[in-house]
């Protein structure tokens, strides 16, 4: 998503005059305002992502018991943050994710860890810690997703006490929404995790149709409550982009006709599913279970057919219908796995999703004692992807080539307006001038790489117009860079790239 500007030029693009019927939309920078962009454009800008797994969603009654018995008896966010093996998260760890080419960080959260169980009031200290991490993500020019995760399993109570559980769910989201109401569109709220789907209502292997309908209806009601609460919560939330959890986040179950996307008056939603298929490779380590046999390798023709069939199912049921898709989690253990197969599986899932305009978000966790050299996939101490071969594979998929040196005193062009000509199928981009700039350049993301269109826009000009007769409906990711002194602001340009669609 943030590759270096190349020296390649495409002769089909030039600066020309704009005529015809022009429609303008403002695109301010990250200043607390919401841009006039679709959720599909937001998902496109994310590129590929990574989870901050086993961290702020770590939970368990034993954590409080341990602190009471061996600690100081005063629970703090760090007790939970480190409970499942994570070091204390630092700004450098988050910046490392951006430096490795990720464009979005999903931060799963167990808000009930420090919450009054009678009033459902979330601890300000816990909220402050989540906010700090969110700020680091956004400051590193990435998108951030936060949710109510497994959260010690209280969502499983919905079938037995829907009214009480819904009250808890609504009360929690009202607080979360209020705490983050002034954040811009780089923050996305996700309705839940994998728990929206209950075998206590419907067993997929032996349940009845009426039981199935009842379970799906409950899932749909919860997702609708989520949208209703956020849209009524003030600040930027009436226009915030939202991520809707699929039924158990399974692809086949989410693609079932009984699953319904909620009604949203502003239509700013994406759908979330997870990908851990086949479970023998993606879930199990080195021991068989009654429901699957552990696999150490992946990459047969059948494996690829299964992967592509699943991704095509999401594309057909959602992407092709205008509903953006985020693969909120995909991953596999490293214990008991052939290293080459781990790279092959992770890169294949990433590419299959990315090539279908979906955003794949890697499930990455702290390295365990028995995980081997590349356990967890992202080394939080070294602040980099653990396996260099995996890093190389991701870069080949996205075209990311690392950071270009940037003059720290140079600003970057902030796009202020995008104008569309329906008559001539052209686009004009206007930006703010950069002090000391000698000229400007335009790059477009094509065929998996950033390709420079021009580097010769004079400093006196602060707009760029495409040729006529581009393909209506086709979207392009565009970056605007400035040359200040001897250095191009290429890295900043790519980080602040925008997606435009020809009309």
TrEMBL record:
SUPFAM superfamilies: (Trans)glycosidases (SSF51445), Fibronectin type III (SSF49265). Pfam families: Cellulase. InterPro entries: FN3_dom, FN3_sf, GH, Glyco_hydro_5, Glycosyl_hydrolase_5, Ig-like_fold. Belongs to the glycosyl hydrolase 5 (cellulase A) family. It comes from Ruminococcus albus. One of its GO terms (molecular function) is beta-glucosidase activity. The lineage of its organism: Bacteria, Bacillati, Bacillota, Clostridia, Eubacteriales. Keywords: Carbohydrate metabolism, Cellulose degradation, Glycosidase, Hydrolase, Polysaccharide degradation, Signal. Gene3D superfamilies: Glycosidases, Immunoglobulins. Residues 1-19 form the signal peptide. One of its GO terms (biological process) is cellulose catabolic process. Residues 78-347 form the Glycoside hydrolase family domain. This is Endoglucanase. GO terms for cellular component: cell surface; extracellular region.
């Amino acid at each position: 998503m943030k590759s270096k500007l190349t020296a390649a030029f495409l002769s089909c693009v030039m600066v020309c005059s704009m005529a015809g019927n022009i429609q303008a939309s403002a695109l301010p920078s990250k200043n607390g305002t919401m841009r006039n962009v679709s959720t599909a454009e937001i998902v496109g800008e994310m590129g590929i992502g990574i989870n901050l797994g086993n961290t702020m969603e770590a939970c368990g009654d034993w954590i409080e018991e341990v602190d009471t018995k061996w600690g100081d008896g005063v629970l703090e966010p760090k007790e939970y943050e480190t409970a499942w093996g994570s070091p204390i998260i630092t700004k450098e760890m988050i910046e490392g994710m951006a430096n490795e080419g990720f464009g979005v960080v999903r931060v799963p959260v167990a808000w009930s860890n420090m919450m009054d169980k009678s009033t459902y009031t979330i601890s300000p200290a816990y909220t402050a810690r989540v906010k700090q991490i969110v700020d680091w993500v956004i400051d590193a020019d990435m998108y951030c997703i936060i949710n109510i995760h497994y959260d010690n399993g209280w969502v499983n109570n919905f079938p037995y006490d829907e009214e009480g559980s819904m009250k808890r769910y609504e009360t929690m989201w009202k607080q979360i929404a209020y705490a983050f109401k002034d954040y811009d569109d780089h923050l996305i709220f996700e309705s839940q995790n994998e728990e929206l789907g209950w075998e206590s209502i419907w067993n997929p292997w032996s349940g009845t149709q009426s039981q199935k309908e009842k379970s799906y209806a409950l899932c749909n009601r919860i997702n609708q409550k989520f949208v209703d609460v956020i849209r009524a919560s003030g600040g930027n939330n009436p226009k915030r982009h939202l991520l809707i959890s699929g039924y158990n986040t399974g692809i086949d179950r989410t693609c079932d006709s009984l699953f319904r996307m909620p009604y949203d008056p502003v239509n700013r939603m994406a759908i979330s599913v997870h990908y851990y298929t086949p479970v023998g490779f993606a879930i199990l380590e080195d021991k068989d279970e009654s429901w699957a046999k552990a696999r150490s390798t992946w990459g047969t023709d059948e494996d690829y057919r299964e992967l592509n069939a699943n991704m095509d199912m999401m594309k057909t049921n959602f992407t092709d219908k205008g509903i953006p898709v985020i693969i909120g989690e995909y991953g596999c253990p490293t214990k008991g796995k052939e290293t080459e197969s781990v790279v092959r599986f992770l890169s294949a899932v990433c590419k299959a999703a990315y090539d279908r305009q979906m955003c794949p978000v890697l499930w990455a966790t702290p390295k365990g004692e028995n995980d081997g050299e590349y356990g967890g996939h992202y080394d939080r101490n070294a602040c980099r992807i653990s396996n260099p071969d995996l890093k190389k594979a991701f870069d080949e998929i996205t075209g990311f080539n690392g950071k270009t040196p940037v003059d720290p005193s140079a600003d970057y062009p902030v796009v202020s307006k995008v104008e569309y000509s329906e008559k001539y199928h052209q686009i004009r981009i206007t930006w703010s001038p950069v002090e000391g700039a000698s000229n400007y350049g335009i790059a477009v993301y094509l065929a998996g790489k950033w390709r420079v269109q021009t580097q010769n826009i004079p400093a006196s000009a602060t707009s760029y117009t495409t040729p006529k007769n581009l393909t209506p409906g086709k979207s392009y990711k565009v970056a605007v860079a400035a040359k200040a002194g001897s250095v191009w602001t290429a890295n900043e340009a790519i980080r602040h790239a925008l997606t435009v669609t020809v009309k």
